[in-house]
Specification:
By secondary structure, the chain is α/β, with parallel strands linked by helices. It has 13 helices and 16 strands. It has helices at about 10-15, 30-40, 75-85, 95-115, 135-145, 210-220, 270-275, 290-300, 300-310, 330, 360-365, 370-395, 415-420, and strands at about 15-25, 45-50, 65, 130, 150-155, 160-165, 170-175, 180-190, 225, 230-235, 250-255, 280-285, 320-325, 335, 350, 405. Helix 2 runs parallel beside helix 5, helix 2 (about 30-40) packs parallel to helix 12 and helix 4 crosses helix 12 (about 370-395).
Length: about 425
């Protein structure tokens, strides 16, 4: 980015667009839109800024995902929680898992009431464990937050957080990429919902997920948690950027000569695939899928099959090469540490949601994949938005009269470090 946001002078000279809000949400995916919607429902004035176009950028919109949606049946809930505890090293917390299951169940039912087209089975019952029409999901969320009164700044990445004299987060500064106009938003609270970091690996939808939210939070003094569980890789066809791990539960993995790789699997045998890839190609075939499952898979996620159609490959009958694509904290579980049930960080006025926040609380040390991370996004966004609105309300009407200073250091020459506080 050639234009440097923070230059010498007062904030009135380097911020052409000066706005105020009760809650500022940074991000444009599921957790950001749920946070913005719930903050607005609480009566807060909300501004959402996204580096892309809210509702289309990020990992969810182009790919779709399963969701950890479980009816409130005690046995089903127990099985759902127990099934991932061992995989995560028993580092998850039951109280958080229960809360996420409850909130996800409520939120997805709300999505249905809003008109999201959940698929139905042959008895007409909705199947709410899937958000495969993710473009419809995110288009709907954008529509709902706009209707709720949220002001959206598209293509307007945040570059640094603002803090008051006590160190509480009080807004952010950034730039409008299409016009070069600089913006400043003073707010009572900020929700960071910028997604994870995939390290420019080209996994579908992930190249905008650069970890900028982590940087801004760290500059404000926030702590990270679970980063040692975030070197996550996802299976992908070697000729495609689509990383849909769920399909590979019906796959068998083979050496180049057609011999099956013993122990290889998409969940418990992924390390075997990784070790094999270090020395030779690995191939897969979705040969465990029955004709009925194949028909279902062909209808729920078109992006997965499109590259195969272009290559003239039938993945259910023919071998195809696979690779592992780095998805970092997008598929991993680490992120900004949250300190209580409101998704507050260790810095006053700063909240974190979605992949920007740690998901250890429900996943432990194992990948959140799609389903758990998707459930976490909708739930944590909902809680963070409500809590941020309440925090801003408690500050009172003069919150945005506070003197503020920017915290940006990495990548921008902050005028605050050389010229003192902006006003």
């Amino acid at each position: 980015m050639s234009t440097n946001l923070s230059e010498s002078g007062s904030s009135s000279t380097f911020s052409q667009l000066n706005l105020e809000a009760d809650v500022l949400v940074i991000g444009g995916g599921p957790s950001a839109t749920w946070a913005a919607w719930n903050a607005a429902v609480q009566g807060a004035k909300v501004i959402l800024v996204d580096k892309g176009y809210c509702g289309t950028s990020g990992a969810t919109a182009p790919s779709g995902t399963g969701v950890w949606y479980v009816p409130p049946d005690p046995q089903q809930r127990e099985e759902a929680m127990a099934s991932r505890e061992a995989l995560g090293g028993f580092l998850s917390e039951r109280s958080w898992m229960e809360r996420v299951l409850d909130q996800t169940y409520t939120n997805l039912n709300q999505l249905s009431d809003w008109g999201y087209p959940f698929p139905v089975d042959d008895r007409g019952r909705p199947h709410r464990r899937s958000l495969q029409q993710a473009h419809d999901y995110m288009r709907l969320m954008r529509k709902k937050i706009t209707k709720a009164g949220v002001k959206i700044l598209d293509h307007s990445p945040a570059l640094e957080l603002l803090v008051d004299a006590a160190g509480a987060v009080a807004g952010a500064r950034g730039i409008c990429r299409q016009t070069g106009e600089r913006w400043q938003v003073k707010s009572g609270a900020v929700v960071i919902a910028t997604g994870g970091c995939a390290f420019l690996s080209k996994a579908l939808g992930c190249n905008v997920l650069t970890g900028d939210g982590y940087l801004m939070a760290a500059e404000a003094g926030a702590e990270m948690s679970g980063m040692e569980f975030s070197n996550a890789y996802a299976l992908s066809p070697a000729f495609s950027s689509v990383t849909k791990g769920a399909y590979y539960r019906w796959a068998t993995f083979y050496y180049e000569d057609g011999t099956e790789i013993e122990g290889a699997g998409s969940q418990r045998g992924r390390s075997i695939i990784a070790r094999t890839l270090l020395t030779q190609p690995v191939y897969a075939r979705l040969d465990k899928a029955t004709p009925e499952i194949e028909a279902m898979l062909r209808t729920i996620q078109h992006n997965f099959l499109l590259p195969f159609d272009r290559m003239g490959i039938n993945p259910f009958t023919q071998l195809f090469p696979v690779t592992l694509r780095l998805e970092g904290t997008v598929r991993g579980t680490g992120g900004i540490r949250i300190v209580d049930y409101t998704c507050a960080t260790s810095v006053p006025g700063l909240y974190a949601a979605g992949d920007a926040a740690t998901r250890e609380l429900i996943c432990g040390g194992f990948t959140g994949g799609g389903s758990h991370n998707a459930a976490w996004a909708t739930s944590s966004g909902y809680w963070a938005g409500e809590a941020a609105a309440n925090y801003a309300r408690e500050l009172g009407t003069k919150a945005n009269q506070r003197s503020v200073r920017g915290l940006g250091e990495v990548g921008i020459a902050s005028q605050n470090s050389s010229k003192g506080k902006g006003k």
